Sequence to fold (243 residues):
Amino acid sequence: MTAAQPTIVATSISFQPSGGSVWDGTPGPGYQHAVKLARGGEHPRLCLIATGLGDNPAYLSATYAAFGQLGLLVSHLALFPMPNVPDIREHLLRQDLIWVAGGSTANLLALWRLHGVGEALRECWQAGVVLTGVSAGSVCWHVGGTTDSFRLPLRPVTDGLGFLPYSNSPHFDAEPQRRPLAHELIGSGVLPGGYATDNGAGLVFHGTDLHEAIAEKPKARAYALTRQPDGSVREDELPTRLL
Fold:
């Protein structure tokens, strides 16, 4: 089976620490919720994409182990030094979920365009493959957002895949520059209005409509950011369901 409708789960939800190395962790209820939405049967197929981290082999190994805890059949798409699968589109369309890691949003988008990954991901989304991810893997589905791809200070990225016609700002409570920059970029029209998530929170979209905000942490919240006629930005805390 596939998801009931095109579905994106865009989050600021990292793995829960397991006491191992910096890469090790356990997928919490946010990841389990994405798996449930994919309706992939007893052993759903998941492809992880870590382009934003340069396809770091240590990270890929740890992530295989983490997702294996959920009984998933895990594969990955690497683009360094060249694609690791003969047909990117065919491989991605075989999945139930595609999970995108954090890292450099700008580098991720550039490499995806070079290899046609964006077009393949759009086809997957329309076919009912659940698209999900954290940080850069949250921003990428949108028109753009705030990013540390160019080091600090944070800067805008405006050439996202645009499946969702909004801006996105992750780590809203954890990085002091996120909130003021998101307000500035939306207020000036550099980015459209959109959404933001605290660490531990995520957004579930059905088609291009926000279905709900979710959280793994009791105090984590999601927000809607709307440009007002005078150029100010209204920030509304969204009802957020604790998983």
Notes: The mean pLDDT is 96. Residues 152 and 177 are 9 Å apart (CA to CA). The two ends are 24 Å apart (CA to CA). DSSP finds seven helices and 14 strands in the chain.
